[in-house]
Amino acid sequence: MIAKDLVLYDSGIRPALRSRLLLRHADEPDTVLIEELGLCRGQVRVDVAVVNGLLHGYEIKSDRDNLSRLAVQVKIYGKVLDRATLVVGERHLAEALNIVPAWWGVLYVYATAKGLRFKTVRRARNNPHRDPHSLVELLWLDHAMALLQERNAARGVRGKPRHIVWDRVCCHFGVDEIAAAVRTRLKARATNPVPG
Fold first, then answer.
1. Handedness of CA 135, 11, 16, 100 (dihedral sign)
2. Which long-range contacts (CB under 8 A, 24 or more apart) does 15-18 make?
3. What is the pTM of this model?
4. What does the pLDDT read at residue 25?
5. Short-list 15, 13, 55, CA closest to 31
6. Pairing with 131, which of 55, 56, 108, 178 sits 20 to 30 Å away (CA)?
7. Rounded Cα gap, residues 173 and 133, in angstroms
8. Beta carbons of 8 and 62 less than 8 angstroms apart
9. What is the pLDDT of residues 32-87, one digit of tens each?
10. Rounded CA gap, 68 and 82, in Å?
């Protein structure tokens, strides 16, 4: 039974989503969940990110939210994430389907007498438009330098501002290589949040 008159809040949706994701990835020791992952130097924050062989972001839009920022979030998520899923209630479902691109998944959340439930409206697909310059910004400077050293490409950028180092990484690594390095570092940070 669906409780149609119940207003869904982020504070209820987020722990239910987190539990769902933890259960789904319970047998994957290489998977971590990160909440409030900042993208593009903090322009937006992903509500919940699942990091394993992909960087999959989940954006929650509760009944109390509006969709005014969603177009900006879609644009920035599209620069970085491998996949994205919008988690949305009844109030915004129809409008949200017109805003998010076809590669985004849509997960409908609704209340029942036994708690919140999720229904997949559309499965997430691979993002065709990642931007290496936006992705590389998720690497700390020392990690970006380590990548350059792997290719003997660090000469001339030691001690330079990080945007110069990031540009050099983009010259020597493809978007898939940068994405893999970012996932590796995000997973390491999740288990050891202090820079090493």
1. negative
2. 16/109, 16/115, 16/116, 16/118, 17/47, 17/48, 17/58, 17/60, 17/87, 17/107, 17/109, 17/118, 18/48
3. 0.89
4. 93
5. 55
6. 108
7. 11
8. yes
9. 999 999 999 889 999 999 999 999 999 999 888 888 999 999 999 999 999 999 99
10. 23
CB 109 within 8 A of CB 86: no
Tokens of 129: 């438009």
Cβ neighbours, 10 Å, residue 195: 10
> Which phi and psi (to 5°) does residue 159 adopt?
80, 0
The count of residues in the chain is 196
Residue 188: both structure tokens together: 């390491």
